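Folding Problem: From Residues to Backbone Shape
Fields: amino acid sequence; protein backbone structure tokens
RECORD BEGINS BELOW THIS LINE
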Amino acid sequence: MTTAIGYGRAIGWLIAATGAAMSLYHMWVIAFAPPEALIFRGTHLLFAMALTFLIYPFARKRGGEHPGLVDWAMLALSGVVIGYLFWNYRYIVDRIIYIDQLEPVDLVVGVLGVVLVLEATRRVIDWALPVTAIVFLAYCFIFTNVEFNRLVDQLWFTTEGVFGSTLGVSAGYVLIFVLFGSFMERTGTGRLFMDFALSLTGHSAGGPGKVSVVSSSLFGTISGSAVANVMVDGPITIPLMKRTGFSKHFAAGVEATASTGGQIMPPIMGAAAFVMAEFLGVSYFQVTLWALIPSLLYYGAVFAAVHFEAKRQGLLGVPKEECPRLGTVMRERGHLFLPVAVVLGMMIGGYSAPLAALLGTVSCFPVAMLRANTRAELKLYAVWDGLIDGARNALGVAMACACAGIVIGVIALTGLGDTFTQMMMKLAGSSLLLALLATAAAGIVLGMGMPTTPAYILMVALLVPTITRLMYGDATALDANLRAPAHMFAFYFAILSAITPPVALAVYAAAGLAKADLWKSGWAAVRIGAAGFIVPFMFIYEPAILMIGDWQTIVTSAATAFVGCVALAAGLHGYLLRPAPLWERAVLVVAAFCLIKPGLVTDLVGFGLLTAMLGWQFATRRRVQPA
């Protein structure tokens, strides 16, 4: 027994030291310029694989808590196959790819490396993505004439496979932003977000639901995970919502939907946003500009859904005396917003996103020391724990990006992307709408089994070219602004799988906290977040929603879309100025779609219907009383 405890303690220290070293290495690289791509990405992958084999032992599902012989063997092999790249670096970069044949030892190292990546990914995020990669490898072997030597070369000894741009995004962008979120959590920012939201909306109708929306959007700026947002906010907001009268499945739906939107909320979005910046060759700040109006439409619609549901049921908020005062919150904790301001200010100033995140990270604890109340809550080991958790929380993205590199490598080597695009073009014909619907369905299905980042990467490789071609014909050299709508469309639907039954991870987490039925919670989340499924179609047909175009079009398109999203929430939840019977709800939904669809005629029809409904409800509001 004593020996087992001692072994577990030693493993704990090893994990802690490795995690802290991984975080410190990436901070050092960002501060003093990264080494060459293969070295940097290889080191990142080695850290990630080592932590994975230590934290997720092979026998854990059979009760094993600590790494066994198999795990140590895989950890050692990981060091060998990546160390081989470092040891033979000049040989690898000087040889002519696909021309100089690999030696037998090279082939063994390459195959072992790919197998280890697949196994490490399986341990972190389960089977969906590794099985997808295996299917693509099988396609390469069975249906193409690609030589085994060339495949191994592509996947392991170039920066077109495992060590491709997706892993580069994980190494260069994702970890430092995850680390920033970890440091923010440890300085009390989560409590600031919750108190700030309570002071603004807690006392209004359905206040706890609105608190969930506001706090989750704020927390989403430092966390790219919907489930993580649920687990931080949910234990506070869900009981408050139930206490003030919301049903438990509606409370779970609100929290899941609000938390899912964190990945689309600037200034710090989900990991896939960094991949998008890499794919489109633009700065990350440009991606946040594209995402700004859609994210406001999403959260505006969710906020409206909570308000209308609360008014329909006659629900009140938290008693005002129980809510913190905004002035007090800002006076005592407002300074904790400063690290986010540092990140945003540096990106606006033209500095790189990783450097902005690094300075934001190192400013977290000095900022928390500025006032006595936040200084008193700091612990000596908080920095150490933040370094460890930053590395651990980045493992899923790191291994997903490495495994996605296998898929991307196969697609690039076989030309499968062009083949698939041609097939989709034939199926869709000349209908952009059919292609969009197919892409939306694929994003939801892919997102059910894997995180947002690999789901988005697969959609970009296989489906986005079809949308782009249908939008612009045979243009090959498109500006990033022209390609942005298709990429944002794929990005959105990869995210929305978190609230779409039957596999909806954010809903699972929220329903567990609320002790609610999964299906009821899932459909409540879909109804609350309905605008999120429509917004992507809006910016395909009207790119001004992405702040592309002249300011007059941008402002008018955003305004009509926002009114349309609110009208949609009113129609789906049966309340505008008073409870709405079925026929009034139908009129509101029609008005909403008219406003959401770009075009002067549809906007005028939508405003006409909405104005008529407002007048009718105002005139008859005394006849129908809330429940």
About this structure: The chain has 31 helices and no strands. The chain has a mean pLDDT of 85. Residues 124 and 240 are 33 Å apart (CA to CA). The radius of gyration is 25 Å.
